[in-house]
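Hi R.,

Quick one: here's the LPS-assembly protein LptD sequence you asked about.
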Amino acid sequence: MEHKKNIILFAGLFFFLSGLVPIARAQIPQWEKCGSFIEPASEELLDPEPRGPVNVEADRVESEKDGVSVFSGDVKFRRRGQWLDADEVFYDKPNDTVEAFGDVRYQDATMDVISDSAKVNLETDIGEAENARYFLRDYHARGEAGEVERESSIKTELREATFTTCDIGNHAWQLKADRVSLDHEEGVGWARGARLKLWDTTVFYVPFLRFPIDDRRKSGFLVPSAGRSSNSGIDASTPYYWNIAPNLDATLTPRYLSQRGPMMEGEVRYLNPSNFGRIRGSFLPHDAKRDDYRGAFSYRHSGSPRPRWFTNLDLNLVSDDRYFEDFGNSLSIASTTVLNNSLDIGYQGNGWNALGRFQGFQTIDRSIPASARPYQRLPQFLVDGFFPDQLLGLDVDFHGEVVRFGRDAGPPTGALRLDFWPTVSLPFRTPGTFFTPSIGVRDTRYFLEHAPAGTDSTLSRTLPIFSMDTGAIFERSLTLWGNDVRQTLEPRAYYLYVPFENQEALPVFDSAPLDFYFSRLFQPNRFTGADRLNDANQLTLAVTTRLLQSNTGAELLRASIGQIQFFRDRKVTMPGFAEETDSSSLVIGEVAARLAQAWSLRGELRFDPHTEQTALGAAELHYRGNEGGLFNINYRFRRDFLEQVDVSGRYPIADNWNVVGRWYQSITDGRLLEMLGGVEYDSCCWAIRLVGRSYITNIEGDRNNSILVQLELKGLGNVGQNVERLLERSVLGYSEQF
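And here's the predicted structure, written out as C-alpha cells:
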C-alpha cells in the first residue's frame, strides 16, 4: 500500500536516526580490506544522496482524520538511499509526533541503526531512541547507546555509549562513556566518565574528554609516545595540536630524553590559495651528554604568486655536525653530509622555463675539508627550452646559465660563469625506426675573483657537439609456457663527436664524473655541471629485448646490454685523474623480470673487458604474497669500494600474526649496518608491534640500540612509538595488512 502523503512523517524519523552516530563517523579511517558488519540489502541503499519517490508498505493501516494513524505489521519505508523498517509506527497528528516500535531499523549509504523504539517531534525536531545499536557500513565500526536524545541538528545526548572497530563478539578494545554530548554546530563532543576497556578490563579512565566529531580540526593533546634507546635513554613526548585557523595549525611537542634532558619540538603548517609551507624546529637547551645546547631548524615553502610563476624555499640548519647522529632515527639520516639552503623563483612558458636561484650549503660532515666543500650559488639564473618541429622540421633545444659562485676557501674563492648550449636536431621517424642527427655548440666563460697569481681572470671554452642517434624495433609473437607473448628486439646506435680542448685551467665549481649506468651510454657529457665537457669520438652499441603479455601489454621481462667504443683517448678529466686510454667502456647490462605473480627480479652488471673483472653488480629479488608475506634480498657490489647484502621481510606465522626483520650487512669490512627484528599482530580491530633494532649512527661505527613498542587501536589512536613508519622505511613493500 502506498501512502505518499505521509512522506513528512518518515522523513522526520529518518532525520533523527541519521544523527545517532557522528562520533563514530569522525573517528574511523577507511579500511577497504575489512569489509562491513552488515552488507547492504540493495544497491539502492548505496546512493549517498537520498532522492526519489517514497513508498510505504504495511500489513495494516488505521487512520483517523484528527487523531492518530497507526501503521502495523512489517512496516517498510523505502526511498532510494534510505530504508526504515519497524513492527509498528504511530503518527499523532495533533501533537505532530512519530513513534516507531519493535525492531526499528534504519539504513542508508553509510550506516545501519537498530533500536527498540524511536520517537520524534516533527515540529520541534526533538526526539529520543532507546537501546540503539549502530554499524558504520564503510568503516568497520560499531557501537551502542542505551538512550539517545536529539535536539534537531544542533545537539545530541547519548548515555551509556560505546564505540569499537572490533568484530561482533570480539572485546579486544572498546571505548565506553557514561554520557556523551555532541555539539553539531561547533563540531565537538564531550564525553563524561570515559573508559578504555581492553578485553573487558578498564585500563584507562578520564572523567572528562573533549574530541572532534567532524572533519574540522580541534586543538588538544595528541596520543603520547615513549621508548628507549642506548643513545638517549628513555624518550617520552606528549604532542599538543593547536588549530590556529582553517589554513594554519601548529604542533608543539615537549620531549624528555633521560640521558640528555628536556627538549622542545615544534611544527607549523599553512595552506593558502597560492602557497603552502611547513616550519619545523627543535631545541635542547642543555644536552647533558655533550654539555652544550642542540637544535635544528627547517623551513619549506612552495607557492605560485601569479599564473606560470612559482617559488620554492628550502632552509635547513643544525646546531652541530653530530645532530643527526644523535637524534636521527635511520642510517640514511645519520649519514647526511650537506644541508641545502635555497630559494627558487621560476617561470613556466610555452615550451621553455626560467629559474632564478640563491643557494648555499651547511656542511655537517667533519671529514670534508674546507677546500672541498660545495660552492654557494649567489645567484644562479637558468633558462631551458625545447621547440619541436620548427623550420624544415628541426627540433630546437636550448640551455643557458649565469651563475656566481662563492666560497670562503679557494682558490678560487668566487667567479661568475656563463654557459650557453643551443642544439638543433632533425628527427626522422617511421613506425619501427628512428634516426636523429643533432649538432650543438657549448660556450662557457669564467670571470674569476681573486684569481691565483700568474693566472688569467677571464677564461673560456667553446666546443661543437655532434651526435647521431638511430634505432629500430622488431617484434614477433610466440608462446611461452602456454601464454601468448610478444617479444621485441630493439637495437640502438649512438655516435658522439666532441673535439678536444685543454680545460685544465678551468676551475671546478659543480662538476663531477657521472656514474656509469645504462642511460649514460646515450648522453653527450660524462660530467655533471658545466666546468668540464668531455672530448669524444665514440660509438655506443646497445640492444634491448622485452617480453610483453599479448592481451594486456604488461611487461614480463626487459633486458638491455650496451657498450661504448672509443676511437681515441679521453684527455679531459677532473683534477687529479689520469687520461682514459681504454678502447672501450665497461659492458653494462640491466634486467627486470616478473618471474611470477608474486616474484620480481631486477639486476645490473658492469663488466670490465680489459681486466676481465666485474666492476659493479647489483641484484634485487622481491616476493609479495597474497597472505601478507614479504621477502626482499638486495646485493650490491662495487670493486674496491663496497659489498653489501640487505635482507628484509615479513612472514605470517598465524592468523594476523607476523614476524618482521631486516639484516643489512657490509661484507667488505664485516660490519652489521642495521639489524631489526620483531613480531606484530595486525587486524582490522587492533595492532601491536614489538621491534628490537640496532644500527650504526656515524662513520666511527657507534651504534644505537633500541626497543620499540606500538599499540594501535584502529580508529582510536596509537600508544608508543611509530613502529609502522620505521618498518615501512626498513622493509621494502611493507604496509599494514588492514
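The chain is about 5% helix and 60% strand.

Cheers,
M.
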